[in-house]
Amino acid sequence: MTARAAAAEQTHRRILDAARARFLAAPYEEVTLAAIAAEAGVSTQTLLNRFGSKEGLAVEFATEFAREIDSDRATARAGDPRSAVRAVLRQYEMMGDLNIRTLALENRIPALAEISRMGREHHQAWLEETFGTCLPADPRARRTTLLALYAATDVYLWKLLRRDLGASLAETARVMERLVRGALAPPG
Fold first, then answer.
1. For 19-52, how does the pLDDT look when each residue is reduced to its tens digit (9 = 90+)?
2. Tally of domains within the chain
């Protein structure tokens, strides 16, 4: 790698690191390209040249963050509700508030709608992979079980329990695990 390419990669990394810090800490509307550029030690024009817009930067950040989340979620043991809930909660404790803020704006900002769509797809694929051996063979029953698993592990449930009802992390884990186990139980 040439010195120029290495410097360009370092600049890219600094911008994404600064964007991560800003997007995690503040509502989307309050995050400015000027603040991200200043934190990264580049000009706003450099940031625009690399990402095109705030929306482009948000999508790039989310794409990178999704890889990190996928890697963490891969630690969940297949078919194990406790392991799966712990993986999801690690993610939500780190970035659940950002998820909720993004979802609140997805109908107004196309880039955030794309980020939300990607998140939903990743979550559903992860649920299918993690619980695939526990899912019913019948397509209709399989879909119902996946929907129940999705509801039991969704960020809105995390927000309800942790933010709105003040549940501890341990209580939240117990509730989510109970719901996951219920979703996997054969209909009675």
1. 999 998 999 999 999 999 999 999 999 999 999 9
2. 2
Q: Are residues 178 and 90 in the same domain?
A: yes
Model confidence, pTM: 0.86
Distance CA 46, CA 61 (A): 16
Cβ contacts of 128-134, under 8 Å, gap ≥ 24: 129/78, 130/73, 130/76, 130/78, 130/79, 130/84, 131/78, 131/79, 131/84, 131/184, 132/78, 133/78, 133/79, 134/79, 134/184
Distance between alpha carbon 63 and the CA centroid of its chain, in Å? 10
Inter-residue contact 58 to 118 (CB < 8 Å): no
What domain range is 13 assigned to?
1-52
